[in-house]
């Protein structure tokens, strides 16, 4: 999970995400989640962010070969050219 949120919401998003994932570096967390835990994380984050300003990205690897990108809030960067 990667996030870019307003200054007032940074700590709230980090606290919510750390209930499910491991903090890696600024605005980056990772971990393995069940589908239910992923949905719970999304619900928690959705309650905090401002959809008109903030951006949260979830990278979901369904298998080692394939990967999907899901974004919440403002869409930043190209979604069709991920290596």
Secondary-structure blueprint of this entry?
Blueprint: E1 2-4, H1 10-18, E2 22-25, E3 28-30, H2 35-48, E4 55-61, E5 67-73
Antiparallel strand pairs: 1-4, 2-3, 4-5
Helix pairs in contact: 1-2
The average pLDDT value, as a whole number, equals 86
Q: Percent range for helical residues?
A: 25-40%
| Percentage beta strand | 25-35%
Q: Which sequence of strands runs across the widest sheet?
A: 1-4-5
Number of helical elements: 2
Which blocks of ≥5 consecutive residues have pLDDT under 50?
A: 77-83
Query: How many beta-strand runs?
Result: 5
**Element pattern in H and E:** EHEEHEE
Largest sheet: 3 strands, antiparallel
Give the overall form.
globular
The Cα radius of gyration reads 12 Å
Report on this structure.
With 83 residues, the protein is α+β, with helices and mostly antiparallel strands. Helices cover 28% and strands 29% of the residues. The chain has 2 helices and 5 strands. The strands form 2 sheets. A 3-stranded antiparallel sheet has the order 1-4-5, with no helix packed on it. A hairpin with a 2-residue loop joins strand 2 and strand 3 (28-30). The protein is globular. The chain starts with a strand and ends in a 10-residue tail after the last strand.
